[in-house]
Amino acid sequence: MDAHIKIVDFHVRYGEHTVLEKINLEIPKHQITVIMGPSGCGKTTLLKGMNRFLELVEDAHVKGQVLIDGEDIYDPVMDVTEIRKKIGLLAQHPYPLPMPIYDNVAYGLRIHQMCKNGKEMDEQVRHFLQEAGLWEEVKDRLHKPASGLSIGQQQRLCLARGLAIKPEILLGDEPTSALDPISAQHIEKRLLSLKAEYTIVLVTHILRQAKRLADHVVFMYLGEMVECGPAREVFENPRQERTRAYLAGQF
Known about the structure:
It contains 10 helices and 10 strands. By secondary structure, it is α/β, with parallel strands linked by helices. Helix 3 (101-111) crosses helix 4, helix 3 (101-111) runs parallel beside helix 6 (151-164) and helix 6 packs parallel to helix 7.
């Protein structure tokens, strides 16, 4: 397996409460890895550990390594801004910026000085709206407020905004859980098409979604990584009793 992310002896606690303990796993490049498990098992904490978002959580303590392309993102010499540019995050609820649709996509390009305003910027905004499957729906109202979009459209706009800064890795924290079924299907289709270019890591507690999307699976339970491997192997022939119980709907 060509591992893009390697997590070594990763521990997280909030105050005195241990949330993750001794996580060791490898996440393959250009596949969709789904982190699944019941609510409260540490899925989102593990995801946020992959781009140092845990540093924004009060009283969070982290030990261990997260290696991206062989470099430990927790090494003190690493630039956090560059890490987060390389690793995009699609949150559970969409948070469009309080500005027009066009400027939401252009924002990161301007901040990182990746593109000049004018024709070049217009082309980039169009490209990433197309990648997110939103262009045809918004091309005639690019300069209208993003807040006027539906929730599903806002989530695809946030996807376009995240893709615009050209990350290598895309993290999704239950990115369809707040959406209606049709909007959720739009996001799922985009993720399936994007995995050829990006390493995608998704958190979900919806088993049906994990089965639809996953190439690789990580099963978490009570802060522990119970099992991981190719999706077909885990779903059809799980090695661990707790995995079998979860897949059978026993908890």
